[in-house]
Predict the structure.
Amino acid sequence: MPKISRRSAELGTENAFVVLAEVNELVRQGRDIISFCIGQPDFATPANIQEAAIGAIRGGRHGYTPSAGIPELREAAARYMGEMRGIDIAPEAVVVGAGAKAFIGYAILSVTDYGAGDEVIYPNPGFPIYESLILAHGAVAVPLALREARNFAFDPAELEAQITPRTRLLILNSPQNPTGGILTRSDLRAIAAVLERHPDVWIYADEVYSRLVYEGAFASIASLPGMLDRTIICDGASKTWAMTGWRIGFAANAALAPQFVRWVTNTESCAPQVSQWAALEAIQGPQDEAETMRSSFLERRDLIVRLLNDVPGVACNTPGGAFYVWPNVTEACRMIGAADSEEFGRRLLNEAGVAVLADIHFGSRVAGEGQHIRFSYAASKSAIEAGVARMAEFIRSNQRRVA
C-alpha cells in the first residue's frame, strides 16, 4: 500500500463532528442521548430564503459563477458588513466562499510561506481549525491564552510578548467559539494599541457570530483607526440565518481579495450558485426571523447559565455572545474522581446520556485555568433542562460512590 503524507496523517479535525458521529451511533443503538456537542442553530432556514433558492433553481441558475461570487451578493455583503461595523467596504474587496471556514486557510496561505518559520497567533481555547490549518500550511502555531477572569478575553501584554519578527498573522474571534466570550471595544482598543507597534502583522477577524451578541454592541477591530487595511473581516450566513448546510461565507480585505479569488479558483471554483442567491435574500430580506432566533438564544443562555451554576462542583460565566457556554468543572471532576474534563465528558455521555465536548478539543489546556467543557445551547429549553438535570444527578450519584 502506498504511504500517505505526514501532513495528512497529522491533520487536526473538528471534534464536534467526531463526537456527533459517536452520538448518532449510540442513538442508532437505542440509547437516549441529549446532545450539546454541535454548534448549529436548531431552527429551519427562514422560508423567504428557501423560496429564493427554489426560485434560483427554477430560474436555471445552476452553473458556475465568478470565483469571487455573484456581483449582487458581493455588493450586498459589502453593505451589510460595512454598516454593522461603521466602515466603508467596496464590493471589490469582498470574496464569497463555500462557508466562512475556507477563508481561515486562504488567509494563512496568503500571508505565510510554507516552512519559512512564519508565525500565526491564535486564541486558546479556540476553534480547532485555526491550529490545524496553521500547521497544515507549514506555519508556526502560537497559542494566545484566553483567561476566565477576563471573561475569556486575553491580556494585551501577553499578546505583545508573543509577537516576534516572524509573526505574520493574528487571529481574533469575537464572539468566540468555544467560550462565548466577546472582545469589547475597550479590549479591541488595547489590542490595536499593541498592533500599532507591529505594522507588519495582518489581522484575521473571525466574526461569524457578529449578530449573536447579548452584552453591549458588537465591535470589530476593523472599525478602529489604522486597522481596516490590515484586517481580514470574515462573516457568513450559517449562524445568523440558520444556513450551516448552505455553505456561504464572505471575507473582506481590499489588498488580499485578489489572492483569495485565486485560492477559490484553485480549490472550490466558486460557492454554490443556488446558495449565493439564497444568501442574497438572507441579507436583503426581512430580518424578523433572525432576530427571533437571537432572542431565543439569549433566553436559552440565561437558562443554561442559571441551571449550570446550581450543579454541584460547576461554575459558569455568563457568555457575551454566540451560543456556547464554557463551564468550569474542576471541582466536579474532583468530586466524582475524574482525572480531567475528557474523562468527565466521556463518563457523562456513557453513564448519563449527555454529550458535551471537553476543553482539550479546543487546544491545550491553559495553565492555571482548570478543567472546562463546552455546551452548545443551540438546543431546546426542554433539552437544556433535562440535560443539565442529568448532569447534576450524575455528579451527585458518583460523588456518593467516591465518598
User: Anything to note?
Assistant: The chain has two domains: 6-44+289-402, 61-284.
